[in-house]
Amino acid sequence: MKYFETHAHYDDKRYKDDRDDVIKAAYASGVEFILNSGASYNSSVEAVELSKKYNFVYAGVGVHPHYSDSLTDEILEKMIKLCENEDRVVAFGEIGLDFFRNLSPKSVQIHWFERQLEAAREVKLPVIIHSRDSDQAVFDTLKKANMPDYGNGKGVVHCYSGSVEMALEYIKMDYFIGIGGVITFSNARKLVEAVDKIPLERILIETDCPYLSPEPHRGERNDSSNLKFIVEKIAKIKKVTPEEVASKTLENAIRLFNIK
What residue ranges in the chain does DSSP mark as E strands? Predict the structure, then answer.
């Protein structure tokens, strides 16, 4: 089976001793493409550099809501400049809101979320959306922004944790739903219900590595080779084969991120 890892953080310091080995091992395990998402300006730069090193790795450029208060107009302009690496940068993100930790004030998060959506519109890239304990605020912001669709979808709501009803509304707005290791957890009943109702044509798979390792590796450092456990769980929920899930989610991601 071939997989598209749509959300990784291989620039994270947890890979400092074996980053290249882990990435090569993931590719050898069937991970045909990796999208490494930026979380700050510096990590976005690192994501772009990583994408230049491996022809199967692509970059997302964006500032995570945790670091919203580090953003300035000047830094946002630098982020836009990074997107000029047109063959390597395929998304703007991850961006969004996080009212669970509130590491940046809510008003600051919202301001820079809106500004980064404007930047994504300027560079004509799909968005990677972070939402934690902020489902309605994220949804309302995206609905108000009315992002353009370049023919492949507007973006992905990464590591989805909302309701079935909201997932279906996102799909109507032309967003994909990112499903990660949480789907394998025993307490993921709400997410299982959502995956059951979301059309496979609208699902992307991700690990969010090094975070959120799926069962049976929960609590360990995550990596893209664990996508197979996510695929197997989705297949079980939707009563299809793992091969069908892997193939369709690969196709979905290639379309959304316009991989040539």
Answer: 3-8, 31-37, 57-61, 89-98, 127-132, 155-157, 175-179, 203-205
Helices (H) and strands (E) in the chain, counts: 9, 8
Residue 40 and residue 64 in contact, taking contact as beta carbons nearer than 8 Å: yes
Q: How many CB atoms are closer than 10 A to CB 111?
A: 15
pLDDT at 77: 98
Which of these, 256, 208, 229, 230, lies nearest to 8 by C-alpha position?
Answer: 208
Cβ neighbours, 10 Å, residue 254: 15
DSSP letter at 89? E
How far apart CA 259 and CA 71 sit, in angstroms, is 29
| pLDDT surpassing 90 at residue 86 | no
How many CB atoms neighbour CB 48 within 10 A? Answer: 22
Tell me the pLDDT tens digit for each residue of 163-208.
999 999 999 999 999 999 999 999 999 999 999 999 999 999 999 9
CB 211 within 8 A of CB 232: no
Of 169, 164, 91, the C-alpha closest to 130 is 91
